[in-house]
Amino acid sequence: QVQLMESGGGLVQAGGSLRLSCAASGSILRVNIVRWYRKAPGKQREVIAAITGSGSPDYADFAKGRFTISIDNAKNTVYLQMSSLHPDDTAVYHCHLSPTNDWGQGTQVTVSS
Fold this sequence. Notes:
By secondary structure, the chain is mainly beta.
């Protein structure tokens, strides 16, 4: 089982930025896909972005232009840079590794108006 640890969440004002990190235990990122998801109260979990070990990114429509996913294989870490944050972005953000189906514990992002 791979352990994933998210960090970087917090409270930010609308319009601000945050960078989330997802650190993986072991050198597994080169052969897997890592996705960022978020779950807001009363809403379904939604995928934000994905990246392969080779660094090829993909984004949900709502994330394009505001969120950037990146990978540092040397650190076994995937990042999610978020900008122009809106209160609707308030959620718990998780990273997920496939095909092993490993989840991190999540990090809370709260955007105040």
